[in-house]
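Folded chain entry —
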Amino acid sequence: MTHNSLRLTVTTLAAAAVVTAGIGTATADIASAPAAGTAVAGA
């Protein structure tokens, strides 16, 4: 019982880490998009 609970906790934490990383990447892409657009327009 304890082993299954521990595995569930680890799985949950891993999933949360993946989601957080995905959100972080998406946020970085959104933040850099205007800068890239400005650079292209300026060139």
Summary: Residues 20 and 26 are 10 Å apart (CA to CA). The chain has a mean pLDDT of 77. Residues 2-42 form the longest helix (41 residues).
